[in-house]
Amino acid sequence: MQRWYKTFPHGLPGVGLLVLRIAIGATLLIEASACMVEPQGLKLGAWLLASLAFGIGVSFVFGFLTQLMAGISALAGAAIYIWHPAWAVFFLSLTSFETIGMALAIALLGPGAISLDAYFFGRREIVIPRVVRS
């Protein structure tokens, strides 16, 4: 996991990444929950895609496995836009160029210091106690 997460920006850059993550995550959560509550004749594949968008949105908001989920989000949005353009009407936030661009930015920048990734996979300080020899 250390190869994925080189640094966790803190301070204002970390807050900026938090705002970016919350913006895209909340958008995905709202749209996915709306698609799951009122399916409007969606097929099973589209309903599964809505549940995937919901899981990615939760992951973005909490900052857990952020870079992996951002990559999946960008690939899913591009795949829907290319192979199922009719579904793009139902998944506007997943298939818009802005969302794909923000997901790629999160994938390249990382989650920031205010995330579960920083808590679980961040650098640790190892304190080695001194040995008193007599």
Total number of helical segments?
Answer: 6
Strand content: under 5%
Secondary structure class reads mainly alpha
**How many distinct domains?**
1
Q: How much helicity do the residues have?
A: 55-70%
Largest sheet: none
Helix and strand succession?
A: HHHHHH
Shape: elongated
* Distance between the ends: 41 Å
- How large is the radius of gyration? 18 Å
Poorly predicted regions are none
The number of E-state strands comes to: 0
How would you state the average pLDDT, rounded?
83
Would you summarize the structure shown here?
It contains six helices and no strands.
Describe the structure.
The chain is mainly α and 134 residues long. The mean pLDDT is 83. Helix 1 crosses helix 5 (97-109), helix 2 runs antiparallel to helix 3 and helix 3 runs antiparallel to helix 5 (97-109). It has helices spanning 12-37, 44-62, 66-83, 92-95, 97-109, 116-121. The protein is 64% helix and 0% strand. The chain has one domain (12-121). The protein contains six helices and no strands.
Topology:
Elements: H1 12-37, H2 44-62, H3 66-83, H4 92-95, H5 97-109, H6 116-121
Helix pairs in contact: 1-2, 1-5, 2-3, 3-5
